[in-house]
Structure formats: C-alpha cells, structure tokens
Design a protein that fits this description.
Elements (H helix, E strand, L loop, with lengths): L1 H9 L11 E6 L3 H13 L3 E6 L7 H5 L11 H9 L4 E4 L10 H7 L2 E4 L5 E2 L12 E3 H8 L17 E5 L3 H11 L2 H4 L6 H8 L5 E5 L11 H8 L4 E5 L8 H8 L2 H15 L10 E6 L2 E8 L7 E13 L6 E13 L2 E4 L3 E2 L17 E2 L2 E3 L9 E7 L2 H4 L7 H8 L12 H11 L7 H16 L11 H9 L1
Parallel strand pairs: 1-2, 1-4, 2-3, 4-18, 6-14, 7-8, 7-14, 8-10, 9-10
Antiparallel strand pairs: 5-15, 11-12, 12-13, 16-17, 17-18
Helix pairs in contact: 2-14, 7-10, 10-12, 16-17
Bound molecules: NADP nicotinamide-adenine-dinucleotide phosphate.
The site of NADP nicotinamide-adenine-dinucleotide phosphate has 24 residues, from helix 7.
C-alpha cells in the first residue's frame, strides 16, 4: 500500500528528533489529548505543547463522561494536572477549533497539530417520532448529570413519568441506569451536578428497561459495570430466562471471549435469583433482548411527548463480519410504554472545516494516527503535520487507558521544520479576535471554588455548571 510506505519513510520515533524547538498543538484536553501531550513532552525536551479546549476547563470525558459514582476513574486527572503544569506546556481553555481559530491557521502556526477532540455528537436511529419531547441522547443526559455547561439547562422530566427506556446495552447505558436507580443518598456523596441530584431526589421513575437489539451474548457492557447495576440496593431485576438460551453460533462467540462468558454468567445468575415479582414501590430494572426500536409513539394526553417505543423482535443471523451475528427484524412488533427515552447507541465525532472524514466509519481517515487526505486508500495522501488520536482516530470505543496505547501508536514525523509562530502566534490571533483564553491557572481557580463549595456538603466537588459562572470565576 502506497500510504504505508510513505508513512514509514516519513515517520520515526519522536524520541529521536533533533533538539530544535518543535511547536505542537493538541486540540482536546481529554485522556487522548493529555496522554499525547505527555508523550510529546517526555520524548523531546525541546517540544512546546499547547493544549486547546473549547471548554474553560480541562479533562474532557473524565469530567463530563465518567459517571459520578466512579471517582477512582477520575484519579487520572492528577497525572494530567502534572502534564499541564510542565513549564513547556500551556492550556488554552475556552478556545474553539472552527470558531476561535481554524484548522488551517493552526497548521500554519504549529509544526504538529494533533486532533484529540473526541466525539461530541450522537448517532441517530432515523426512525419515526425521534423528535418527540422526552427522548434524549445518552450524551446529553450524561452531560446533564455531570454538569457540562452545554446541558445544564436540559431539565429532563423525571417527575411525571415512572418508566424510562434506555436503547442500547453498552457501558454508557449501565452508567445511566445506575444514576436513575441508585439511592440518591449514595449519589449525594459524589460530584454529581446539584441540579441533577435535586431532580433525581424528586424522580418518580421506578422502572428502567435496557433494550438490546441482540442477545445476552452480545451485550456491549463489561462485567464490573454489570455487577454494579445488578448489586444496586433493593432493586428488582428481570431477565427472561428464555433469552439466555444459546445457539451454536453464540457458543462459538462465547468460546473466544472471556468477557462475554462472564457477562452471560452474571445475567444467567441474576435471572434465577431474587423474587419473581417486585414488591410494592420497589425499583425495577428489566433487561430486554432481541428487540430493535421501530418507531416512537406520541402521547394522546401530552401532545408532542413520547408515550412509548414500538419494538420489533429480532433474530440473529451470521453477518458480513465473520464471527459477529447481526440482528434481523422478524416483522413481529410490541409496544413498550414509557415517558422517558435515552438513546445510548454510541457517540459521533463533529466535523471541522478542512478535515477529511470517513462518514462510513465515523473517524478521520488515518494511518497510525497520521491524517490521510481521504478515505480511499488508493487515492489518499498523508496530510503533513496533522494527526488524530482517541475517539476521532478509532471511533467511540474503549476505556480511558485505551488512549494511552492510542497516543503511543501515533507516529510522529522526522521532518526539517521551519520556525513557526506557535504559542505566541496563537495568543496574538486570539487577542485580535477578542477570544478570552482560560489558562490552566484560571482552571485551578475554578477547581478551588468547586472544592470549597463542596466542603460544606461532604462531597468531593460542587461543579460549576454555567458558562457565565465558569468564566467569571476563571477571570477572578
Ligand atoms: P457501545 O459500547 O458501542 O454500545 C452501544 C450500544 O448501542 C450497543 O448495545 C449497540 O448494539 C447499540 N446500538 C448501536 N446502534 C444501534 C441501533 N441502531 N439500534 C439499536 N441499538 C444500537 O457504546 P457506549 O455504551 O456509548 O460506550 C462507548 C465506549 O465507552 C465503550 O467502549 C464503553 O465500554 C466505554 N465506556 C466505559 C465505561 C466504563 O468503563 N465504566 C463507561 C462508559 C463508557 P450492537 O452491539 O448490536 O451494535
């Protein structure tokens, strides 16, 4: 392959670069961005790394995506803070790629631009009724309970409904199910946004359905997260035992995958333990398999609001991908009543001007992180000095640590570089546009304020969730 050879010739380990200053810009301050910055700083003592983020605070998915009851996952921010405090590293919060500065401007100012801004949009189902009120993407809901300033006004209705349906059975689904079903006294000790905690304290949601288009063998979650949901205090768990029967094709999948076997065991155990009916007022979780959403049903009483989901029963068929079975509709339908729907079917990256994108795969076309000019392997050229890392590079899958390997894999060029404007050029450009960048020291003011506010409530942090407030505290 031509690209492979070209990339091999141009690339070599970053550690062997000469001692000339190298201006690096990393866009996105989540795990992929910080691991990349750390790698750059360690590998070359002359590298100057600027990390841009459209939010006034760093850490991306660690702050806005990781569930509030998973504090151990957030410890990695200590490591990222040390990276940001390195004298050769600068953080530019409140700087948006596309509106504050364009990709071509960044490429003119820096030798290396690494895009690590993740996946901030949602896959859609494309079925009738998807626009009804009461239907949200999982991302919006997660951002809401994590205090992301873009979703602090979301106000999902948890008060006038008793049933929620979550479509998809990945780990994000399990995070949301825990937040909806865990006792709020437990959530109160976390860094959950206070607006979300208040709404959950008043929530009337008692039943949560997790709907998967395939079977228990294919559920996309992991064992630790499943155990946590099944272990929620005083929760009635319903799993249809018939769904747990496996076919030879399922057995083949199980044989090759220890995680899938563990999930199947946990679900099988949960299906036969516990009571056969919920006790009055008990919260319930229902695992629904072999059902795909066909359309959303509008309410007669509340015009424009969702009242249910029509599901089509599915069977599994061998797919084009060997060893992977696909769900196929059977033409049999059933309706599931609900007042809240959360579509947890995966995230999607947002495009920026001048960046090639493979719409089919939902990633920037790349060879080991080097951006290619188009998705077609035969026609693609390597885009000099432009790289991707994280979800933008490989799609919205994997845990935080996956980004460490992803950053490691990204190859960097050995090119004779010209002197570039770098940090100074960026600052001048932002000043000329009246963009008020938030440096890391200003984030530390936000951080202190959040911790101080939390000290009165025995929680780790009370997040500031509004743009004005965040910028105001940052500017103090
Ligand atoms: P995911 O793991 O890809 O799960 C997506 C789910 O949506 C799957 O069940 C998938 O079913 C289903 N789906 C996709 N398209 C659908 C459609 N058109 N109709 C019906 N169902 C559809 O994605 P995720 O849950 O958003 O998680 C993203 C990544 O973050 C994952 O790698 C996850 O492990 C990670 N994460 C980890 C943690 C943690 O470690 N605690 C927490 C949150 C997220 P199919 O399998 O049939 O496609």
């Amino acid at each position: 392959m031509a690209i492979y050879k070209a990339a091999k010739l141009l690339s070599r380990s970053f550690s062997s670069l000469s001692s000339r200053p190298l201006r690096v810009c990393v866009v996105g301050s989540g795990p992929a961005g910080f691991y990349t910055a750390e790698k750059m700083l360690k590998a070359h003592e002359e590298a100057e790394v600027d990390i841009l983020d459209r939010l006034p605070m760093p850490f991306g998915l660690v702050r806005s995506g990781v569930a509030p009851d998973h504090p151990e996952t957030k410890i990695v921010t200590n490591q990222f803070t040390r990276v940001a405090q390195n004298e050769r590293c600068s953080f530019f919060g409140n700087v948006s790629l596309g509106s504050s500065v364009s990709l071509s401007e960044l490429r003119d100012m820096y030798h290396v631009v690494v895009l690590a801004y993740g996946a901030e949009s949602d896959r859609v189902l494309g079925i009738s009724g998807e626009e009804l009120a009461g239907i949200h993407s999982a991302r919006e809901f997660v951002w809401w309970y994590n205090g992301h300033p873009d979703c602090s006004n979301m106000a999902p209705d948890l008060k006038s409904v008793d049933t929620a349906v979550i479509l998809g059975q990945g780990n994000v689904t399990l995070d949301i199910a825990r937040v909806l079903l865990r006792p709020t006294t437990e959530l109160a000790k976390t860094d959950i946004a206070s607006h979300a905690l208040s709404a959950l304290e008043e929530s009337s949601i008692r039943k949560v359905y997790l709907v998967g288009r395939r079977g228990p063998v294919q559920a996309a979650c992991t064992a630790k997260e499943l155990r946590e949901v099944l272990g929620i205090k005083d929760l009635y768990v319903h799993i249809d035992e018939d769904d747990l029967r496996t076919t030879p094709a399922d057995e083949e999948e199980l044989k090759n995958n220890r995680i899938r076997r563990r999930i199947h065991e946990l679900l099988s155990k949960a299906a036969i333990s516990g009571t056969s009916h919920p006790s009055p007022g008990q919260r319930e979780i229902h695992f629904v398999f072999f059902r795909k959403p066909d359309k959303f049903i509008g309410s007669d009483e509340r015009s424009g609001h969702v009242a249910g989901v029509r599901l089509e029963k599915t069977i599994l068929k061998e797919s084009v991908h060997p060893g992977k079975q696909a769900a196929e509709g059977t033409g049999q339908y059933e309706d599931l009543e609900c007042g809240l729907v959360l579509k947890s079917i995966g995230y999607k990256s947002v495009l920026v001007d001048g960046l090639p994108f493979d719409l089919q795969k939902g990633v920037v076309p790349n060879y080991r992180g080097r951006v290619l000019s188009c998705a077609s392997e035969d026609l693609a050229q390597v885009e000099e000095g432009l790289y991707v890392c994280g979800w933008l590079k490989r799609g919205p899958t994997g845990i935080i640590a996956t980004n460490l390997y992803c950053a490691e894999e990204t190859e960097h060029p050995h090119l004779p570089w010209q002197s570039q404007a770098g940090r100074q050029g960026l600052q001048q450009l932002l000043d000329s546009r009246n963009v008020r960048a938030v440096p890391f020291s200003a984030w530390e003011k936000i951080d202190n304020e959040e911790k101080q506010r939390a000290s009165l409530r025995s929680k780790p942090r009370e997040k500031l969730t509004r743009w004005e407030e965040l910028l105001e505290v940052a500017a103090k």
